[in-house]
Design brief:
56 residues; 2 helices; 75% helix; mainly alpha
Length: 56
């Protein structure tokens, strides 16, 4: 057993996410939310258009 193993015995068993993994997950989430907001905006505009055509 070497000195680093004695100082950090659980080094190989660390759990969690790396910064890169977190950034990639946030990027995917941002793209998905952007697409969702785009679809919601398009749907709202279409609803207003259809309402105006119905009332005309």
């Amino acid at each position: 057993m070497s000195i680093p193993d004695q100082v950090y015995p659980n080094n190989a068993k660390q759990v969690g996410f790396t910064l890169l993994e977190v950034l990639v997950a946030l990027a995917v989430l941002a793209i998905a939310l952007g697409a969702l907001l785009e679809a919601a905006g398009s749907s709202a505009a279409n609803l207003a258009y259809q309402r105006d055509r119905t009332l005309a």
